[in-house]
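Appendix B. Chain record.
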Amino acid sequence: MKIVEKNAHEHTPVTTVVLLQRNGVPYEVERTFCFSCREVLEERPVKRTAA
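Structure tokens predicted for this chain:
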């Protein structure tokens, strides 16, 4: 079995605000992801949105 290494790179963070729904309740979430590999680096709830 051969292990393939991913190309090492420095993450370029991009922050966006998205609307998600948890248990029927809408939330605003601030999501930080890497621009080149699209890996989510951080995700934190900002606030509960109005229904």
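Further analysis of this model is presented in Appendix C.
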